[in-house]
Structures are given as structure tokens and as C-alpha cells.
Design brief:
Radius of gyration of chain A: 24 Å
Mean pLDDT of chain A: 85
Number of helices of chain B: 12
Number of strands of chain A: 0
Distance between the termini of chain B: 18 Å
Strand content of chain B: under 5%
Radius of gyration of chain B: 24 Å
Order of helices and strands of chain A: HHHHHHHHHHHHHHH
Shape of chain A: globular
Largest sheet of chain A: none
Shape of chain B: globular
Mean pLDDT of chain B: 84
CATH topology of one domain in chain A: MetI-like fold
Helix content of chain B: over 70%
Strand content of chain A: under 5%
Helix content of chain A: over 70%
Structural class of chain A: mainly alpha
CATH class of one domain in chain A: Mainly Alpha
CATH architecture of one domain in chain A: Orthogonal Bundle
Order of helices and strands of chain B: HEEHHHHHHHHHHH
Oligomer: heterodimer
Structural class of chain B: mainly alpha
Number of strands of chain B: 2
Low-confidence stretches of chain A: none
Distance between the termini of chain A: 30 Å
CATH superfamily of one domain in chain A: MetI-like
Chain lengths: 281, 295
């Protein structure tokens, strides 16, 4: 701090405190709602203190979801977890391989390959949603894990990140490997992969959150309840209208669906920040 | 490609095998669908997938004469200006104050960044729950205070709701980048200005804010892209584009016309227009990156 200004310091904490409260408010209310019975939530205004049905509500949604629908949120969380992991790991693997090829080999069509990957940066899934849906449906991938994940696996961001990082690996390492008679894949496994560990960790955090929070895509490709992800489950629960909705259970589901990515951000904060900054370079 | 490796490996097949997985996924799920969108945008097709009729640019011409589409453009413009403007100013204020904090800075940071982890759809549900006219806590107090709040009927209020939810979710991201930008400003500059008698406000206006301008510009582009595309889930969960078309942004209309209205040609033409917008934004962003590298 440059100079001592008690009033400004007080004001600083006041503003940040308000910021923290506003950021936390909706989640607090959600938590409170998730601990009441459905009629208690419908009372206006709902009590602002937690109720006594925490265990009942969470046990109910985990096993059989909200209302009559049947599919438990436990199952949906597993679906979310599988999709998030496949998307994160899949993206990291295919982009590391292609970035390795682009940086360490000179081959015909290298420029074309680079350009083809580059141009995908510009096409978010929302833009080409209908034709992509048609492709996936023609391939018989609706309501499968492959359909949920594979179309989201190709992205230029991760490839660029690895390419940029590989370019900073000292030349001497590759030369030494060649002199020692190590082939390219040996070099990849023993040198490139271990050196990339921090980048992989950072990217994993970002991609896990990206995969877990997907909305439009799973909304389209899943029609069977046992393939819903947690985020989609919430949307399906509230589409019946206000009166028919068990808001306490919806809010318990929302808490459960927020928990894993929030924990990842908080516990792996260092990697999260690195991943965010790196992937936007 | 500015830099090249001198040491290279040689193999006639390995590099192709290495890029194959990414290329297959890219071709099947990017180029094929994008090509199809381009192709369909110049045809009309009946809803049952029957006869195709070539209509040239008629789909586009029709769009620009369609009042609903033009209205959607206006909604999108208003929405992105509000989301980017509010999101950037609020997070800048928080970052500037967080940068001043000596004790507890890490705690504030943690408490402010976690909404990044909340799915946009869930953010929409949370805020919808707070503002729901029949059961929302905030809506209750607004009505109690004599304010006639019902976003299900009032378009302006619906826009407010989705803007609030979208900004809430994006503040954490902007905050992190602003904070990093602030922390990279040399303290000696600020100390020199303080010794010369410049107070905190003056220092912010003449030193800090100009030095932050690259970060601000970068975030502006990111936030506009966010408002255009990533807010789809917020809008679908909170208002479903309603009431009427009040919160129907362009991306939402592509989805609605394509999946609910089954107007394939019109939806494809809208996709093509969106692609042009994204490509423009991406080029702008890359221009900026290039300039940053030259610094």
C-alpha cells in the first residue's frame, strides 16, 4: 500500500464485502430452499433460514429425482462426470498428439492441417447446432455417451496451447534424444508429456468445468432420462410450470450440480487461474 | 507460424497418424455441419424433409425483411452492450479494491471467482427463482416496496433478469483478468505519482486505467462473444426467450426457428449470419493479440 488512508481502507472492505454477498446470495437462497418442504418454499416470502429437511430432500433427489420422473440425480451426476472426464481427457489427448505432429514434423499438408484446426476456433457449437445434430443423429449417436462428448472434443484452443508450449521446449532435448537413438514417440512419452504436466493440469480444470456445464448440446442429444446430465435434469424438472414443480427438490439438484465444478475451482485455484489465462492467450 | 523447430523427426506416416484423430472429429463435426448450414441456407425445404428448392439468397433477403429477426438483432445488441458494460465496470471496481487489500486478499479472490464454475443454465435457474413473481424472495420484496415486478409479463424486466444472471456469472472471469492486469502495473510508477501528490482517484484515472486498456479491450471482445453465444443457456432456463420475443437473442432464434419452428432454410441462413459475426469478432481479437506481441 502506498499511503495510509483508513477511510479508504474501510470503504475497500465495504465494497468487496457487498460484492461477496451479492455473489453468494442466489446460492444461499438456493441452499435454504433445498432444506425446506415444497409447501414451505411456496410460501411468500420463504424463510431465509435453513429448514430441517436437508437430509430428506437430498436423499430423495439422489435416488429418484424430483416428482414422478424417476431418474435419480445420482445417475445424472454420473452422466455429467463421465461426459466431463471424456471431454477433458479426449481434448487433451487429441490436441497433444496433433500439436506434437505440427511442431516436431514437417509433412505435406502441414499448413492445411494447421489451418483446418485453426478455423474451428471461429465456430461455436451454437452456431451450427442444427446440422451438427443431424450428423450425430445420422450416425446413431443420440442418447449415447459418444454423442454427448465426441462432437465437443475437437477444439483449436487446446491444440494452440500445446503448440505454443512445445515451441518453448529447448531444441537440445530433441537433438539429444535423436542422438541417443530415441524415436519420436519415445521422446513424446519420456520428455514432452512429463514437461507438459502443468499445462495439462491447468487445461484439465478448465475443460472439466466446460464439459460439466454443457447445456444446449446434451439438451438436444439426450431424450432418455437415464442419459440426462445434472444440468439438463434441472431444466427438465422445471419445465412443468410453477405449480407442478417441487422447488425444494429442484434446488437440491441445483446445489448438487454446482458442487463438483465449484470444488474444482476452489481446490485447484492455482491451476484454474493458469488455465484460464493460458487458454485465452 | 513465427517460430520453427530445427530439430525434427522423420517419418512418412507418423505425423498423419498423430493428427488423424483431431482431423476426423473436426471434419465430421465442424466442416460437414458448417458446409451443410451454408448449403441449406440457399434452399427451402418443407418441414417433413421432403422437396428441396433452390432459392438463392432469398432466405437472407427474407430475414432482413422479417421484423422479428430485426427485433432479435436489437435485443442482442442491447443485451450485449448491457452485459459487457455492466460486467466490465463491476468487475473493474471489485478488482481495483481487491488490489488494494493487504490482508485477506486471497480470501476475497476465492469468494469472488467461484461463480465461474456455475453452469449458465443453473445461473439462469437461480436468478429466476429469486425473481419469480409468485415465489421469488427478491420479487416479493420488490412488490412489497410498491414496485410492480413481473418479468413473465414485462419484457424490460425479463431483459433485466437475464442481464443480471449473465453479469453475475461473468464477473468472476473479468475480475481475474483485471486483477492480474492491475498486479502487473509497476508499483514504482504509482509510488512516484503518490509522492508528487496524486491521490488514489487521480492515479487511477491517469496511470492505472490507461495501462489496463489492453486487458479491457481483450475482455470487451470476450464479453461480447459471451453475451452473443454462451448466454443461450441462461436465457433458455430463465425466460425461454419470452415474454413475446423480449429476450430472444440471435442464437436463441436459430435454435427456436430450427428445432421448434422447423424452418431449416431460415435457421441455416441465421447460422451463416452468426458465423460471419463470430469470424469478425475473432479477427478483431487476433489483431489485438498481434499488437500485444509487438509491445
Amino acid at each position: 500500500m502506498i499511503e495510509h488512508r483508513p477511510l479508504l481502507t474501510f470503504f475497500t472492505h465495504l465494497i468487496l464485502g457487498i460484492g461477496v454477498i451479492v455473489v453468494a446470495l442466489p446460492v444461499y437462497v438456493t441452499f435454504v430452499a433445498s432444506t425446506h418442504t415444497a409447501p414451505e418454499v411456496l410460501q411468500a416470502p420463504m424463510s431465509m433460514l435453513p429448514g430441517s429437511h436437508f437430509v430428506d430432500n437430498y436423499a430423495a433427489v439422489l435416488t429418484h429425482g424430483a416428482g414422478e420422473s424417476g431418474a435419480g440425480v445420482g445417475r445424472m451426476m454420473v452422466n455429467s462426470l463421465i461426459s466431463a472426464l471424456v471431454i477433458a481427457v479426449g481434448k487433451i489427448v487429441i490436441s497433444m498428439l496433433s500439436a506434437f505432429a505440427i511442431v516436431y514434423f514437417r509433412f505435406r499438408f502441414r499448413g492445411l492441417v494447421f489451418w483446418m484446426i485453426f478455423v474451428t476456433l471461429m465456430l461455436p457449437v451454437e452456431v451450427r447446432i442444427l446440422p451438427t445434430y443431424k450428423v450425430v443423429s445420422d450416425l446413431g449417436m443420440l442418447d449415447t455417451y459418444a454423442g454427448l462428448t465426441v462432437p465437443l472434443i475437437a477444439s483449436a484452443t487446446a491444440t494452440f496451447l500445446f503448440r505454443q508450449f512445445f515451441l518453448t521446449i529447448p531444441e537440445e532435448l530433441a537433438e539429444a534424444a535423436r542422438i541417443d537413438g530415441a524415436g519420436p514417440m519415445r521422446f513424446f512419452w519420456d520428455v514432452v508429456v512429463p514437461l507438459s504436466r502443468p499445462n495439462v493440469a491447468a487445461l484439465f480444470v478448465i475443460l472439466f468445468i466446460y464439459g460439466w456445464n454443457q447445456y444446449l448440446w446434451p439438451l438436444l442429444v439426450t431424450t432418455q432420462e437415464d442419459m440426462y446430465t445434472a444440468v439438463i435434469g434441472i431444466k427438465r424438472m422445471i419445465s412443468g410450470g410453477d405449480a407442478a414443480t417441487d422447488w425444494n427438490l429442484v434446488m437440491a439438484t441445483a446445489m448438487l450440480a454446482m458442487l463438483p465444478p465449484a470444488l474444482v475451482v476452489i481446490l485447484m485455484q492455482k491451476w484454474f487461474v493458469k488455465g484460464l489465462v493460458d487458454s485465452e492467450k | 507460424m513465427a517460430m520453427e523447430k530445427r530439430a525434427r523427426f522423420r517419418s512418412w506416416w507418423l505425423p498423419y497418424a498423430l493428427v488423424l484423430p483431431q482431423l476426423v472429429v473436426t471434419v465430421v463435426f465442424f466442416f460437414l455441419p458448417a458446409g451443410q448450414a451454408l448449403y441449406q441456407s440457399v434452399f427451402i425445404q418443407d418441414a417433413f424433409g421432403g422437396s428441396l428448392q433452390f432459392v438463392g439468397l432469398d432466405n437472407f433477403r427474407e430475414l432482413f425483411h422479417d421484423e422479428l429477426y430485426l427485433a432479435s438483432f436489437q435485443v442482442t445488441a442491447l443485451f450485449s452492450v448491457l452485459v459487457a458494460g455492466l460486467g466490465l465496470s463491476i468487475s473493474l471496481v471489485l478488482a481495483v479494491f481487491a488490489d488494494r487489500v493487504v490482508r485477506g486478499a486471497a480470501a476475497y479472490k476465492t469468494l469472488l471467482i467461484w461463480p465461474y464454475a456455475v453452469a449458465p443454465a443453473i445461473a439462469g435457474v437461480l436468478w429466476m427463482f429469486l425473481f419469480n413473481p409468485s415465489l421469488g424472495v427478491v420479487a416479493f420484496w420488490l412488490n412489497r416496496a410498491g414496485f410492480d415486478w413481473n418479468y413473465l409479463l414485462n419484457g424490460g424486466q425479463a431483459v433485466t433478469l437475464v442481464v443480471v444472471a449473465a453479469v453475475w456469472k461473468q464477473v468472476s472471469y473479468n475480475f481475474l483478468f483485471f486483477l492480474a492486469g492491475l498486479q502487473s502495473i509497476p508499483k514504482s510508477l504509482l509510488e512516484a505519482a503518490a509522492i508528487d501528490g496524486a491521490g488514489p482517484v487521480r492515479r487511477f484515472a491517469t496511470i492505472v486505467f490507461p495501462l489496463l486498456s489492453p486487458t479491457t479491450f481483450f475482455l470487451l471482445v470476450v464479453n461480447v462473444v459471451y453475451a452473443f453465444f454462451d448466454t443461450f443457456a441462461i436465457i433458455d432456463a430463465a425466460t425461454s426467450g419470452g415474454p413475446g420475443q423480449a429476450t430472444e437473442i440471435l442464437v436463441y432464434k436459430v435454435y427456436k426457428d430450427g428445432f421448434k419452428g422447423l424452418d431449416l432454410g431460415g435457421s441455416a441462413a441465421q447460422s451463416v449470419i452468426l458465423m460471419v459475426i463470430v469470424i469478425t469478432l475473432t479477427v478483431v481479437q487476433f489483431r489485438y493479440v498481434e499488437r500485444k506481441v509487438q509491445y
